[in-house]
Amino acid sequence: MVAGSLMAAELAEQPHVLGRLVDRHAADRDRVRAALPGRLAGTVLLARGSSDNVAVYGRYLIELASRRPAGLAAPSVHTRYQADVDYSGYLAVVLSQSGVTPEIVETAERMRGSGATVVGITNESGSPLTQVCDLTLLTEAGPELAVPATKTVTAQMLAVAAIAAAYDPSLVPAADLGALPDAVSSLLADSPVVVGALPGAVSGAVPRAVPGVAVAAIAAARWADARRLIVTGRGLAYAAALEIALKVKETARVHAEGLSSADLLHGPIAAVDSGLPVLVVSGGELFADDEAALAARLTAGGVPHMVCGSAPGADLPLPAGVSEVTAPILATIRGQQLAVAASLLRGLDPDAPAGLSKVTATH
Predict the structure, then answer these.
(1) How many other C-beta atoms can be found within 10 angstroms of the C-beta atom of residue 97?
(2) Model confidence over 110-147: pLDDT tens digits?
(3) Is the pTM of this model over 0.90?
């Protein structure tokens, strides 16, 4: 098996996987709407790993759409502290790619027993999670064999968008969703690049043409010697920043930290220097001034930085005209490409990172 072939193949399946969820969007939205609590107190999202980064995306979307508080659950409150929490009137959104993580299943069951309406998002029909939910949205992404999640992550993001749309359909316009599969295809249409032959590739990196990662591979080569990285974004883009950082950590063994760009300015920026690159995931027009000010500060400090976004000149470009709701999905895919390329440049196999397994059985 050629290094990275599984992850690259699963990454390339995303136009089809997301297209199927786009076609299902209205039906999923209506199923969730029918299950919503009569008097909504708020929404809580429960997950670990990549699914937890999707939950951050959902926290923003659902609070915007429902106009009620939304937040992230801490599983150990239930599994370790055995807290008796009243979830009457709450919608609990539970995300798990496998649907078998013990603490997620146990916490979902406890939430339901404490009054929550539980909606699960998983790729596995018949998994333990589906047995403890009032309603399950299956991502139906097909088997995912590479350890780092790709297609299941972006599929979860679309499922979360359907939940938000159950509160306010105008937040997720049909036109934006309809354009998404073609936009994803455009990201995957880059010319192949021989990753192992790029400047900065370590000795032993296998020269291999990888379809669809030319832009990301060239960006990865610029920081081929970096052992640390900050990935930053704000608003909905913050979720993409968190997921990109996780993918780079998993695959390339680079200590990448995902931060809100606002939090970056509240202290961590003091540790940023010429040896600590920064990848800025654009949050769109609402945050354009903030991002320009951050870029100016990084430039003045001699800090190497790149931008992932749809503005002209972006180092990791996204299609122009995408909505703020779908842009984080596209940025997440760019980050997946970056992670594959960075891993191969270092002579690693992104399909099977050392010490990791597909399912992490935390309790």
Answers:
(1) 28
(2) 999 999 999 999 999 999 999 999 999 999 999 999 99
(3) yes
Reference 278, options 242, 228, 234; nearest CA is 228
Tell me which amino acid residue 53 is: N
pLDDT band at 203 (very low <50, low <70, confident <90, very high): low
Cα angle value 258/259/262 (rounded, 5°): 165
Identify the helix (H) or strand (E) that includes residue 167.
helix 151-167
Q: What is the pLDDT of residue 353?
A: 81
- Bridge partners (DSSP) of residue 210 are 193
Indicate the burial class of 330 (C-beta count within 10 angstroms; 0-12, 13-18, 19 or more): buried
The predicted pLDDT at position 271 comes to 83
Helices (H) and strands (E) in the chain, counts: 13, 12
The residue among 43, 88, 92 whose CA lies nearest residue 65 is 43
Handedness of CA 60, 166, 55, 93 (dihedral sign): positive
Q: What are the residues facing 121 on neighbouring strands? A: 95, 137
- Return the amino acid letter for 92: A
Report the alpha-carbon distance of residue 243 to residue 53 in Å, rounded: 6
Dist CA 200 CA 344 (whole Å): 11
The listed range with the strongest mean pLDDT (105-114, 182-191, 343-352) is 105-114
The H or E element that residue 162 is part of is: helix 151-167
Question: At residue 39, does pLDDT exceed 80?
Answer: yes
The confidence band for 194, taking pLDDT boundaries of 50, 70 and 90, is low
Beta pairing partners, 230: 257, 278
Backbone phi and psi for residue 206, each to the nearest 5 degrees, phi listed first? -80, 120
- Strand, helix or coil for residue 240: helix
The pairing of strands 90-95 and 117-122 is parallel
Question: Which residue in the block uniquely carries the two structure tokens 């299950």?
Answer: 35
Cα distance between residue 178 and residue 325, in whole Å? 13
Single-letter amino acid, residue 137: L
